[in-house]
Each structure stands twice: as C-alpha cells, then as structure tokens.
Amino acid sequence: MRPALLLCAFALAPLPTFSGPLPAPELIGEITLPTGLSIEGVPFGGLSDLSYDPRSGQFVAISDAHGDNGPPRLYHLRIAVENGRFSGLDILGMRPLRGPDGAAFGAQVRAGGVAVDPAHDRIYWSAEDIEGPGPALFSASSAGDGAAPVPLPPAFAAQGLRAHGVRPDHPIDALDLGPDGHTLIAATEEALAQDGPVASYTEQSPVRLLMLDPETGQPRAEYVYYTDTIPARPTKFDGPASNGLTALAALPDGRLVTVERGYAAGVGNSVRFYVVSTKGASNIAGEDRIDRIRDHPVHKALWFELSPGMPGIAVDDLEDIAFGPVIGGRETMLTASDNNFNRHQATRFKLFTVELPHPMD
C-alpha cells in the first residue's frame, strides 16, 4: 500500500527565462512538501540526492537523516504532468538502507548521494560515518539492501585529525552514473583537506571530480573543479555563509551538469547550474595532493541560476538533481531541496523541461 499521494499547489506566476551553454530550460512548476510530514511514522525530509530509474519510471531520493531524524533511507517517487504543468508527486514507498547482514544502518551514518544502475538492478550511494571512519561508497540492491563497500582512492581517506581526506560535514554528496553505464562519478561538497580551503569570499575551493570503475574501485580519472567563491555576505557581520558543490548529473554527451549552492544568513540561498567539460583538464588520478599551479581544472560554463527575489521562484537549500522521463515529447529534469528537518524550511521539488545534447560520436 502506498504511504501517501501528495498533490500540492505550484506557482503560477510568470517564470524566468534562462540562458547558457545548453538550450534554456523551462520551469513548469514547483511542488512543496512542508516539514512535519511523516511516512510510516518517520519524518520526511533531509533529501540529499535524486536519481531516475527508467525501468520503473520512478525517481529514487536518498535522505541524509541521522540522529533523532532516523537512519539513512530511500524514497521512491513518481511525478505527474498535466497540461504541460507539474501537477503531482506520489511518494510510493520508503526503504531503510541495509548492510550485508540485513540490519539497517544506524543513525550515526549520514547518507549523501545516490545513483541508479538499471542495467544491473542496483544502486550506488555515499555516506559519512560521523562517529567512525569517515566517507564511504556502497553498492546495494535497487531496494537498498546488502550494501557492499566500493573502495575510494587513498586521497579521500581521513587520517589523523582530519588534516587529510574528506572533510567532516562535507561528504560525497554529488553522485551519478556516467552515460556509458560503467563509470561512477562522484564529488565532495568542498575540497579534500590536503587539497585546499573551503570556499570563502575570496577563495575558490578545489574539489575533485572522481571517475570510478565501480566494479574494481579503480579510478578511471580524477579532475580538479573549482567552486565559486561565496556569492553574498550575510546581513550580520558574524553570520554564517558558504558555497559548495551539492549535486551533479551526467549529460548524454559526456559533459556534466553541476549544482553549486550558496548561502548567506539574512540573504538566503542562491543556486547556480553549470555545464562542465573535462576536455583539456589534467587527470590527477593517483596524486595525493592537488598542485594548483600544474593541474589544469575542468572548464565550467554557467547554464542558469536561481537567486533570492526572483519572481515566481522559491529558492531553498537545493541539493538534488536528476534527468527524468520524456513527457509529452519533452525531456525533464527534477530538482529537490533539503528541508534539514527545520520547520522554517520545506522540501521543494522543481520540474524543468530541457533539451539534452546528443551523445558524442
């Protein structure tokens, strides 16, 4: 039995026109789920990534819930479009993520990204054990059972007092399967500790884009991706502010779409979507530390952005992106925000129609 069928109102105000290195996307609606909703008695929210399963026509969302908000889990979602507008979101079910012994992962594990592998009836997901060894990648059944570790390169491993490897609270959040179906693409929100700083008002953060063979755990390639600096200052002098890479999706032609989410207290969130090409970038696989002079980064070009005050748009903590089904002859892209289980935030799903490039010859 399905836990809930949720149909929520979306904005009917004029929607913005976007431009960039791909044809302009069209926003066809937003559905908002308020914080406080629960499924099977478990609070809904904390969504940190999306992936689309073309076999079932469903999206898979992963929740980074931990602590009092429950263990890491999956949600299966289906969208509806009527008269060219985003009209409904159906929550089909919820599944806890389980290890090889069948036991659910504990609330100390914070999930990050998720990628569906339909050809092998499995998913990949990333996590950080906030009380243990740090970052991890897993392969599991499509239902989230039987998680088996996928090795990460040594540069990602936490060492000592976390002066090396993935930073605490900045796990591998961005994850997708490449168009060849055999390359897992992953990235952290901020630079590895030994590679450089987190983003600031004056400094970009050098994040690694990891291209991994999920069968062997061997890196096919690693590239340097520089995030933007923090795009706005908080309204109070000591207010928090940040910017990082929160999601990515592989394009059919081998390029990527990345999502950078900025935040400044009193100002709000801004979200920038970039199209990324690795052509001409240095392959740094095997390097323990980035050489910021020698290593050439990937090229990124702004596709479009969502910013505070944009008419007809609610901008929140957007962390999720996935290309979805063809509906009415048009390709789609779904995004979602993380409500952080905060009553002042909500889970917002935005649906766009897009024109994706053809695969490279």
How does this model look, in words?
By secondary structure, the protein is mainly β. Helices cover 0% and strands 47% of the residues. It has no helices and 23 strands. It has strands at residues 4-6, 26-34, 38-39, 42-43, 47-53, 58-63, 73-82, 85-96, 109-117, 122-129, 134-141, 148-150, 172-177, 184-188, 206-212, 219-226, 241-250, 256-264, 268-277, 299-306, 318-327, 330-337, 346-354. The strands form six sheets. The chain has a five-stranded antiparallel beta sheet, with no helix packed on it. A hairpin with a 6-residue loop joins strand 11 and strand 12. It is globular, with a radius of gyration of 19 Å.
Instruction: Please compute the radius of gyration using only Cα atoms.
Output: 19 Å
> Which sheet architecture does the biggest sheet show?
5 strands, antiparallel
SSE string, helices as H and strands as E: EEEEEEEEEEEEEEEEEEEEEEE
Q: Residue share in helices?
A: under 10%
Counting helices, strands and paired strands, the structural category is: mainly beta
Residue ranges: pLDDT <50 for 5 or more in a row? Answer: 1-15
Tally of strands: 23
Sequence-ordered SSE layout with sheet pairings:
Layout lengths: L3 E3 L19 E9 L3 E2 L2 E2 L3 E7 L4 E6 L9 E10 L2 E12 L12 E9 L4 E8 L4 E8 L6 E3 L21 E6 L6 E5 L17 E7 L6 E8 L14 E10 L5 E9 L3 E10 L21 E8 L11 E10 L2 E8 L8 E9 L7
Antiparallel strand pairs: 1-8, 2-23, 3-4, 5-6, 6-7, 7-8, 9-10, 10-11, 11-12, 13-14, 14-15, 15-16, 17-18, 18-19, 19-20, 21-22, 22-23
Pfam family, one: Phytase-like
Keywords: Signal
InterPro entries: Phytase-like_dom
